[in-house]
Design a protein that fits this description.
mainly alpha, 2 domains, 5 helices, globular
């Protein structure tokens, strides 16, 4: 694997695991408070519009070996379960918004670097714009995580 393929793999995997964790957090909120039907509707919408399509994309991404696709999917499902269950053996600060924002900053940073490298090779405006958007998202997440620290 060259650097661009490694960054693409890391970016896609971190995004998918982040989407899965988000699904776990939203599902936990929706099932703890039984009186908020809109929270449950949000869980269903997130699952159908974000998590399910991301899972399908990962499963059908032929550039990855079958074992890598399965590993990423299992990591995502594990992340979803951990975010939903919040086991006592994990530190409580893991569930803070600061950690979530730092994770988001890392994911977006990886995607930004991948886009910039892809843009240098292909000179595609789409890669440049996606890279700039990822850069802004990364800086925004990092800034808010540092403010809350």
């Amino acid at each position: 694997m060259d650097m661009i393929e490694i960054l693409l793999t890391l970016g896609m995997a971190t995004l998918y695991i982040g989407f899965a964790s988000g699904m776990g957090f939203i599902a936990r909120r929706g099932w703890i408070d039984k009186n908020k039907r809109w929270e449950r509707a949000l869980v269903v919408a997130y699952g159908l519009l974000i998590f399910l399509p991301a899972s399908i994309v990962i499963q059908h991404y032929e550039a990855w070996s079958l074992s890598l696709r399965i590993t990423v999917l299992l990591a995502g499902v594990t992340s979803l379960a951990i975010a939903f269950l919040r086991p006592a053996w994990l530190p409580a600060r893991l569930w803070s918004r600061t950690i979530s924002r730092r994770y988001s900053a890392l994911s977006m940073g990886i995607i930004c670097v991948w886009c910039m490298l892809a843009w240098q090779i292909q000179m595609s405006p789409a890669a440049l714009f996606l890279g700039l958007a990822a850069c802004l998202a990364s800086l925004s997440s990092l800034r808010s995580s540092l403010q809350n620290a």
